[in-house]
Amino acid sequence: MTIRFDKLGLIIAFLAAYGAAWMPFAVLKPNRIVQGQARSILDALPAWAGSGLLVLLLLAAVAALLRFSPWIKLVAATAALLALALAIGAAAGFLTPAGNTYARVAPAAGFWILLFAFALLAADAVTRLGPPPWLRVLFLILASGGAGAILMSGSWDGLSIMKEYAGRSDVFWGEAGKHVMLALGSLFAAVLVGLPLGILCHRVDALRAGVLNTLNLIQTIPSIALFGILIGPLAWIAATVPGAAEIGIRGIGAVPAFVALFLYSLLPVVANTVVGLAGVPREANDAARGIGMTDRQRLLKVEFPLALPVVLTGIRIVLVQNIGLATIAALIGGGGFGVFVFQGIGQTAMDLVLLGAVPTVALAFAAAVILDALIEMNSRIPNGARSA
């Protein structure tokens, strides 16, 4: 019997071995700022739990290494990820001295490497299964539900990041709301402006190059520089236009962040609208003209429905981009998860940085999965049903 190895599984198994055997699993720190002592899996957990975790990780690595069915790989990855999540919470309780409110336990490099390795295994298994869009969204809901259940159970309460959250729980959700509003609001404004502008650029060739080149130029401006450029004009508007300051327009704060994100969002929306409309088959337009459709009817019932998957791809790019860029808004008082990131950097408290970074990454990942599913669902809809 010939043993067949999985090429990606070789990389995953190497990462798992490296993370489990050679890298620390958790770090015990005297307080939230100073460097701590790195602990391996066997040192960070009770003997039975550490040994059990190593055995489970070994079995999951074998499942990645060999050419098993995608379902087996998915189950192995899920079990490994769940075990890691429970183990890091248990490590916090095991390592923290009794009655010590200053000591902090944080995941170390080994934990993050193992998390990445088995998340990669899960993603690869899902890709090989080729599930329909609704099932991918269901996987996302189940994963989010599992993470939420662990959070609500209190098993992570001893971790440093959760202690940072406990001290800022009243502020955290307010900043989360600002982050989401910045990302979604700027996206909505960009779609509202970008779709008509993209249609106009498609219809008027003389306009296309100038608009796209201008939007390309905006994309080349670094985000910090663009925020700075907007401070002057918006401060002038707030000082000279009656009522502008009362509705929130000022040199710093959420408004310049919103405007900057809106400007960054325009290029993907406009360019994908142009590309999507240009890709509509000529035969479809000729058939629409043949049955007497007006230009407006052709646009709404033929061209735009056929171009919609490409347009949605642009919207997906914008949303994921904006979720990340909204973090920078904290530098000019725009709020969002960036508040915790930059506070943590200023205080040399990396767990506070993670309090802002982890939800940002989770939001971007969830947005990408959901919009990918919407794009694929739309692509599978028959043309006739789309324009009905």
TrEMBL record:
**What InterPro entries does its record include?**
ABC_transp_perm/SBD, MetI-like, MetI-like_sf
Keyword Transmembrane helix among record annotations: yes
Principal cellular location given in the protein's record = membrane
Membrane spanning stretches? 7-27, 47-67, 74-95, 101-122, 134-156, 176-200, 221-245, 257-278, 299-319, 325-345, 352-375
The yes or no answer to whether the keyword Hydrolase is present is no
Q: What is this protein called?
A: ABC transporter permease
Keyword annotations of the record:
Membrane, Transmembrane, Transmembrane helix, Transport
Annotated PROSITE patterns: ABC_TM1
> Where found in the cell?
Cell membrane
Organism the protein comes from: Rhizobium puerariae
- Give the bilayer topology: Multi-pass membrane protein
By its UniProt entry, which PANTHER family does this protein fall under? GLYCINE BETAINE UPTAKE SYSTEM PERMEASE PROTEIN YEHY, GLYCINE BETAINE/L-PROLINE TRANSPORT SYSTEM PERMEASE PROTEIN PROW
